[in-house]
Amino acid sequence: MKPSSAGFHTGRDARNAGGFNRWMLAAAIAYVAATAALRWRAALPAISPALQWLLVGTALLFAVEATRRYVLYLRQADELLRRIQLEALGLGFAAGAVVALLYPLFELLGAPALGGRGIAVVLLLAWAAGSWLAARRYSGGT
User: 50, 77, 104: which is the final residue of a domain?
Assistant: First the structure.
């Protein structure tokens, strides 16, 4: 059996999770577009400052809507699904905090700079791993 919190979803949970996932995908695409526009703005003079602000603002609005959808998903989920997500968020936050606090020390020792995006990736991957582990635990796996 493949552990997944999707196996714990009701129809409403699946719709809420789908809404969150769609907005997160839109936010990720907008983020990549804004990053590319800002990185290559000198080489692409057609990208006006107003368009740059619009791209960044769009990424922000999409991320805010994704956050709102995730909160809705959690509020309408049953206790078990909420517990799975809480454990996943806890692991993601803890891993992100550890990396954010300790990796700068490794940078001082000569490790390559990680930056905020790297910390966000660690946080998101730990959140996904936490979701998988908690779903596995509550689905009867060890």
Answer: 77
Q: 101: buried, middle or exposed (CB in 10 Å: 19+, 13-18, 0-12)?
A: exposed
Residues 6 or more apart whose Cβ sits within 8 Å of residue 21: none
What is the value of pTM for the model shown? Answer: 0.80
Domain that holds residue 88: 78-142
Over its C-alpha atoms, the chain yields an Rg (Å, rounded) of 18
Looking at the structure, do residues 68 and 95 belong to the same domain, yes or no? no
Give 16-71 pLDDT, tens digit per residue.
999 999 999 999 999 999 998 888 876 777 778 888 899 999 999 999 999 999 99
Instruction: Count the domains in the chain.
Output: 2
- Do the beta carbons of residue 85 and residue 135 sit within 8 Å? no
pLDDT digits (tens, 9 = 90+) for 6-18: 677 888 988 999 9
Q: Which of 59, 77, 95 is the last residue of a domain?
A: 77
Q: Do 85 and 50 share a domain, yes or no?
A: no
- 26/10 Cα distance (integer angstroms): 24
* DSSP tag of 114: -
